[in-house]
Write the structure tokens for this entry.
Amino acid sequence: MKTILIVDDQPEVRELVSVTLEVGPYRLLTAENGDQAIEIARTHMPDLMLLDVQMPGGMDGLSVCRTVKNDLRTRRINVVMLTAKGQDRDRQMGEEAGADGYFVKPFSPLELIQKVEAILGE
Amino acid sequence: MTNPLRPFLSELNTVLVVDDDSTIRELTRYMLRRDGFQVIEAANGSEAVTLFSSHAIDLIMIDYQMPFMDGIEAVAAVRALPNGNRVPVIMMTAVDDPNVMEQAFSAGVTDFVNKPFHWSMLRHRIRRLLEYRHAQEQIRNQASELEGLVERRTRQLKETNAKLQQEIAQREQSETKLRQITDTMLDAVYQVNVNGMIEWASPSCWQVLGYPIRELVGQIIYRFVHPDDVENMRREVETIGAAEYRFRRAQSEYIWLETLTNRIIMPNGATTGMVFASRDITERMRAQHELRELNRLKTEFLSTAAHELRTPLTSLRGFSEIMLTRNLPPERQRSYMRIINDQATHLAKLIDDLLDISRLESKRGLTLNRERFDLVALIDEMMTPFLENAGRHVFAFACDEHTVEVTGDRARLSQVVQNLLSNAVKYSPEGGAITASIRRRGQSMIEVSVSDRGIGMTAEQMTHLFEKFYRADASNTTISGTGLGLAISKMLIELHDGSIRVESEYGRGSTFYFSIPTCPLEQMIGDAMPEIVPPAVEEVST
């Protein structure tokens, strides 16, 4: 069973993503902030991280992504940015941080499932 | 037989023969014709004068003694005619009186032959005289040609001179005109040489550039230009002849100049310097800068607003799609409906706040509806719904007076009080006392405070508190909000000529204060003015 880590500071979004993916054969983990996300990534080695960009505290989504991608232990984790920042510049920053995908809020749960399946199906 | 007179005959020389003796005339004509001359005859002096006037005569042979007008008289008359002195005159005479000869020479006779004359000798004399005349004619022609040349040259010189004078006058006129223009224009006009040294400056330079003219002349222009702008300015002047740069004015402040330049090019093509015309565009640059800044803020605001709007929309779209596509037990449906409802409410509040902010930021977009009202009643009114849903909180309202009249926008001030009360509730989740109070501050200010015993704030949080979209303790996700409430409150209070501040201790609670004048500033000034009673006008009885 594949493991997915959902990272978002907003409980409604964490819940929405969890509910969206609960129908699939996934083990779901959640984190409320960047520090938590990195800790869980290292201890549980998820196959995929769905990562919010704007989060309070020192670690925003982009720093989390960079940290994960620069760490030999965690670099194989797929990272998909899940964010309300939809401008080209934001996408580019995500790409530069090493993200494997970019998903803009508000999103369709069905499309999110398809995206996740596509990434984890390989 | 070669004729020694042939060279002259090419010109077909004409001889006027004057003698009262027809035999001598005939003889002379015969001899002359034989040698190729044309011959015209006259029988007396006056006839000779008439013929000379009407014919081109090259030589005259004239008898001394003739009736009516003798030879000497006739020669004198001919000599008086136009061209009369160009013709050689041979006088034929039988007398040998030195007095007569003297008289004849004085009258203009060229030569004498004694009658009877030898033709062989006479032809030589004629030849010599004609040669002489020819040479003289040539000299005369050359002289007159030369004279003509000199005259033409003199005329040309005179014309050139006149033209130059005119040109000088025109230049003086245009220079005066130019001086008058530069004297009266608002732009600073100055001339620099190839090294950038100011050689001349218009009077307006003093006004625009801030230095007396004598202090500018002799200075290198680049010394006044902002160090960061020099390179760019030189390049633009060189390439496009126009530049915008900062210039150090006399008060050692920088102004923005817009400058047009023109090369001063000599007729030989050499550049000797440049003319600069500069205009102070500091105000325009400031306005442009403000506009850019405003535009940047607007874009930033829009992008933040879009982000903020997308967040609740995520829940609306996501949960509604899930409910539409899945069969869920009623309790889960209910839970998602609750989220959708909360987020829709949040969205509506967010839109209201965003509209408020954008109206407040556009300055003229929001006008206060000022009225006179009781602040005590307003706070009572705002607290009522909170008291009804008090839960763990204890509300109190402290005020020494029954009524406190203020002038302001009642609805907008209600919004501020409501915001402070709801913040007090949100940021004291454990409950505790929430106290509102009204206090007078000096003669004309009223201070309202709202305090709680909640989580409080750090110094860092307090510095950002009134910024848009800033939410203290945003990681505490149980506290909802748009992050705009305090930013709006601050702007509304400032619109009332008041101020807002906060005192807080982390973990102990916060107190917000706002103070406003009891009546608007302009009204206070109006009240302070003593009433001026116009002096009564005495009625003058007629």
Notes: Residues 32 and 119 of chain A are 23 Å apart (CA to CA). Chain A has a mean pLDDT of 90.
